[in-house]
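Slack export, channel: ligand-projects

TW: morning all. Re-posting the request from yesterday since it got buried. We need the structure predicted with the small molecule present, not the apo form. The ligand is magnesium ion; the SMILES is in the block with the sequence. No rush, but it would help planning for next week.
GE: picking it up
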Amino acid sequence: MKEINIAEQPWLSLKRTVKITIDGIRYRLFRATVTVAVIVVAVAFLMNILAESLIKRAVAADTRERSDNAQLNSNWSTKLTSTGSPESIVAELARLDASADVNVETRNFIRLPDDDFARLQSTARDVQYVLDFFDDLDYAKRRDLIKTAAGLEILDYLARPENFDTFKLGLDRYRMIRFEMDFDKLQKLIGQRADFRRTLADIIAKRHEANAKITAYLKAEYKDNPTLVNDADRLAMAMTDADGKFGDVIRSAGFNFDAKRIAPIVADQAKNQQFILRMKFSITGASNKTRQLLAQEANKIPSDINEAIMWDYLESASFAKRYIQVMQESGMDTASLTPELLVKLAKARKETAALARAKRLTMDSGKGFMGLGERLAYLLVVSFLVCGIGITNAMMMSVTERFTEIATLKCLGALDGFIMIMFVLESCIMGIVGGTIGAIIGAVIGTGRMMASFGVNFFAAIPVLDIFGGILISILLGTLLAAFAAVVPSFKAARLAPMEAMRVE
Amino acid sequence: MEETNRTAAGEKSAERRVIIRTVGLKKIYTMNNVTTEALRGVDMSIFQGEFISVMGPSGSGKSTFFNMIGALDSPSIGRVFIDEVDVAQLTAEELAFLRCHKIGYIFQSYNLIRYMTALENVTTPMAFGGVQPDEARERGMNILDLVGLKERWHHRPIEMSGGQQQRVAIARSLANDPSVLLCDEPTANLDLHTGQEILDILKRLNVEKGVTVICATHDHRMMNICDRLMWIRDGRIDRIANREDVHIEVGGIEGH
Ligand SMILES: Nc1ncnc2c1ncn2[C@@H]1O[C@H](COP(=O)(O)OP(=O)(O)O)[C@@H](O)[C@H]1O
Ligand SMILES: [Mg+2]
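GE: finished. pasting the full token output, ligand included:
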């Protein structure tokens, strides 16, 4: 005779649980594939944005350094010929610290002791705040507050009591704008403006003197050279000697021109520039021979040939060699031009273009969340949401459509815990598979897209470790999301009485 | 324990044990603010080892009754005792144990697990009950042999006919040697011949193994093999009778 003797149910072994789960997935392979595909797409999307963000950030950092260096010659050429405006000097004083080259220089020019210079900088920072404040306003509001005053004139404008009152009233009206400086301080700043301007004028005068020394030197040095027609030509030529005698001249004029690090780069860039000028002449100059050679090579008519096409072809050493020959034949100056040099220049030219493009593309980078910039951070958040909702939906569907199976398993004596484990295990497997595929696809697409827009020059800048970390995080995220999304409905299903579960459609 | 059954008098009742007993069983379904009273107070005792048919037109509450006494759903009011244990008092683990070891379920739509072979379907309840895989496999094959499907152990439900699937379902319900077999219209989806085969198997199990069989059905052939019949109508017990008594008044029953 049989007796009902109720005892507690043992737990199913993990091995058996895994087997049942995997059999379940294999049987519903098509459905499982669809669910996995949703995870793949969601994670790929997230990873794509993440990879692009990381690459952009890395390229931005890389570009800043490289383009700062790439512009040394032109920055110094500008500095040696122009003094800058009062506003640009305020910006230098406010934004760079006292040890920056340009500020060291300024301090030497006007011979201020450290303390006084610190005070000058602090005033400059306050003034800069005021200027920035008005620059950030839209046109209508700005006009309303300070009419058409611009730059340091703004302080003069606000010096009139009635204007100051209008400004204060205007601020009250625009509640959205916040002027952080208190009015007493602003008044004090306005009071100091004459002194401040005098100092700026002093700086400009000193710089002017220094520039004049340079110009005088250039005139004397190149008086016998008729090809250098103006100051700019002469300076460009002199810069090729920046690591030599001309460097000393720059320093003796009072500039803080680093002989070790900066001067060689400047000299090198200046030399290259000279070559580039000569090459430009080879295509725009009198001779048609070079033009014809290019036309033949590029399969174009000679009048369509321009400098850009020339540089494209000069990237090949064999073409560069022939090009030099043709230049020689037409009697052009080819001194110290070698095919290798031309190839190097052609590549450098491309690099400069790439740098400029990269700088433009990474403009908003460096600020905001993880230094990704506002737009990317926003995209990242959105893609995270899309990923989360997509996976949650897919997992919930895949649990809900199996309520009958859950009910049947419960009729056979399955514990609630077994059903939970089965579904969480299943979603983890799907999450890992989908997450891995998705993360790799996303990373590849992201990297590919970024390389396409930045060019292969930035290949070395790809933050491989960061991207690898991103892949791991994406996989983890996909898996966790999938597991979490499965927990909720399977918990619900597991706790229902079997028949209640079976009734759920 | 040795309680006499007041509602249905059978000469054997005094010596037989009550295995399932319901007291004032009511079930009210609420769906979209519509309430349906599927059971309106059912008091019933089922004896160990008997074969009982629960008959009634569709919608009369057979399945609801079946789910209550099988501990698959909880009653709104009233109690279900399985071997004098109040089902409502059991924990989730104890309920799982009860469903695993003490009761075998057979459904109209077979409810086999689609991704498991016939053998795996049969051995799954054994696994839940803690039987080792090798032993489960051997026992599973024996049970499949019992329902005549030994050769088809590796087939999936989709590869089998309805009758074969129902036989696998029977085999599965027998996995842990249950005391009670609960069948909800086991033959409703099958043709006459196959249905008869299933009925034969059930009867054989009842006679040879002493399993209590409770069968919700409106298959009239059931009358030939069961010990007792219970008619449900609108959620109430209409009538309970021994088979011998029914046969005498067959004409009257056909009218139901
Ligand atoms: N889940 C449910 N929700 C609402 N009403 C239900 C539900 N299940 C059954 N019913 C109703 O309860 C009554 C009894 O149903 P059921 O027990 O399935 O009858 P039978 O199995 O005899 O055909 C019917 O009126 C049916 O409509
Ligand atoms: Mg029914």
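GE: first-pass observations. Chain B touches chain A at residues 17, 19, 48, 67, 70, 72-74, 82-83, 85, 90-94, 96-102, 105, 111-116, 120, 124-125, 127-130, 133, 156, 172, 175-177, 179, 210 (CB under 8 Å). Confidence is low (pLDDT under 50) at residues 1-14, 251-256 of chain B.
TW: perfect, thank you
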